[in-house]
Design a protein that fits this description.
With 462 residues, the chain is an alpha/beta fold. The chain has a single domain, classed as TIM Barrel (Alpha-Beta Barrel), CATH 3.20.20.80. It contains 19 helices and 16 strands. The strands form five sheets. An eight-stranded parallel β-barrel has the order 2-3-4-5-6-8-10-12. It has a two-stranded antiparallel ribbon with strand order 1-16. It has a two-stranded parallel sheet with strand order 7-9. A hairpin with a 6-residue loop joins strand 14 and strand 15. It is globular, with a radius of gyration of 21 Å. The structure holds 1-deoxynojirimycin. The site of 1-deoxynojirimycin has 9 residues, from loops.
Length: 462
């Protein structure tokens, strides 16, 4: 069957500042919570830091040239707050501003649409010293930063994302697995509430100062959980926890329906973790956006009996994404849920989707270049996205995570998501098979593929 996408479909690739830029202490950039976290022994699987990563700060022209050769239509990147405001507030670092001007100009000269995220997890360390996301003052700090971005780049960038995957702040404040490495659930819940208020206030600011052609949205990842045994209380509890208590519902409900869901409210009150909320907060958070960004990686089947086994796999780096835990078809269900449960009617971009190759070191580059599994995975996701579009769901674009292998947070360099292999010694980028496959998809506006085998019954109920 032929899968054709609309002519103006935005085919893209995505990265984030901390993961690809490097130049962590160059040209006036301040330290971030990740620069500090990487230096805590035991926090990063391979003990690496983000000091250099892919060095895109110096090699951006080369990367953009490759994107252009591939026919990429849009590049999703993020600004580093500490490169713009080294102390988080106050003095602007002109060299940081100049870098992003160069990057954006180069994209535009090559006909590539910039899609810019304001915050992708790299809080200035100076603000962490004042309490970081848990301090309500962050609403002022963040809107000051957002204003600098909009004043500096508002003429050049039309697609803006306030936040990428808010949940990461929970992983950092509530679970201790990401920067800043705190394990305080109550503080973490407050941090996430404050972050959502920052989002809403930024959308309000945007409406005041930006022209109508510019669009703003937020990116929330959805890893939808499904109880394997619908009559098993433990499986159902896992499903509820994964979706509502510490998953997408925590964000989508206040953003698109209003307030925290009944299930989450009851849970937080019982645990004495309900955040401090000011009177208008829920109205601010619900400020209408122009689009919604979906980061989709997988659906998750919960089975309390098999949980231990799965935990082991995840600890070994599987991160739910290997057979038989692959459920690319869940994207279809998720897209329907966005419309039916959360009433999301604004356009949707798939702002990330991708596939991991584990690299525990010592394997030659050649082992990673013939990435047929990545192609299969992406193709299957796109088939289900296509099907959802046929049903009338308004998906406008799709971004592969990632353009090139990069620093995968607490997994360091052990997870390769790239369409390009990155040699971290020489900084050479080598295209994988998936890069030429994706480029072919873009050139022809789609692909031919047999219809997918029937969907996993636990997900689609077929
Ligand atoms: C989520 C994040 O936005 C990105 O930073 C991360 O590297 C990918 N997904 C893969 O885990």
């Amino acid at each position: 069957m032929r899968y054709d996408f609309p002519k103006d479909f935005l085919w893209g690739v995505a990265t984030a500042a901390a993961q690809v830029e490097g130049a962590a202490f160059e040209d006036g950039k301040g330290a971030t919570i990740w620069d500090a976290f990487c230096r805590l022994p035991g926090s990063i699987r391979d003990g690496n830091t983000m000091d250099v990563t892919c060095d895109q700060y110096h090699l951006y022209e080369q990367d953009i040239r490759r994107m252009k050769e591939m026919g990429i239509k849009s590049y999703r990147f993020s600004f580093s707050w500490a490169r713009i405001l080294p102390e988080g507030t106050g003095k602007v670092n002109e060299e940081g501003i100049a870098y992003y001007h160069r990057l954006i100009r180069c994209l535009k000269e090559n006909g590539i649409v910039p899609n810019a995220t304001m915050y992708h997890w790299d809080l200035p360390y100076a603000l962490q010293l004042k309490g970081g996301w848990g301090n309500r003052e962050i609403v002022k700090w963040f809107t000051e930063y957002a204003k600098v971005l909009l004043d500096s780049f508002g003429d050049e960038v039309d697609i803006w994302v306030t936040f990428n995957e808010p949940i990461a702040t929970w992983v950092g404040y509530g679970m201790g697995l990401f920067a800043p490495g705190l394990k305080d659930e109550k503080y973490g819940r407050q941090a996430l509430h404050n972050l959502l208020v920052c989002h809403g206030e930024t959308v309000r600011l945007f409406r005041k100062i930006m022209p109508e052609r510019a669009k703003i949205g937020i990116v929330v990842d959805v890893w939808r959980h499904y109880a394997e045994r619908k009559d098993n209380a433990e499986d159902l509890a896992m499903e509820l926890a994964g979706n509502e208590i510490a998953g997408y519902g925590w964000f989508l409900h206040p953003l698109f329906i209003g307030g925290y869901s009944g299930e989450l409210t009851a849970y937080l009150k019982e645990k004495d973790q309900y955040p401090q909320i000011q009177e208008d907060d829920f109205d601010i958070i619900k400020e209408p956006v122009d689009f919604y960004g979906l980061n989709f990686y997988n659906g998750i089947i919960d089975n309390a009996d098999k949980e231990k086994e799965l935990e082991k796999k995840r600890a070994a780096g599987g991160n739910y994404q290997f057979k038989p835990e692959q459920h690319p078809e869940a994207v279809y269900d998720v897209l329907h849920m966005l419309k039916e449960k959360y009433h999301i009617t604004v356009p949707i971009y798939i702002t990330e989707n991708g596939y991991i190759q584990i690299d525990d070191g010592g394997q030659p580059m050649e082992d990673f270049l013939e990435d047929e599994e990545r192609i299969d995975y992406i193709r299957t996701v796109l088939q289900w996205v296509h099907k959802a579009m046929q049903d009338g769901i308004d998906v406008r674009g799709y971004y592969v995570w990632s353009f090139l292998d990069n620093f995968e947070w607490n997994a360091g360099f052990t997870m390769r998501y790239g369409l390009h292999y990155t040699d971290y010694q020489t900084l050479e980028r080598v295209p994988k098979k998936s890069a030429s496959w994706y480029s072919g998809v873009i050139a022809s506006g789609g692909f031919d593929a047999p219809e997918p085998e029937s969907a996993h019954s636990a997900i689609l109920g077929s």
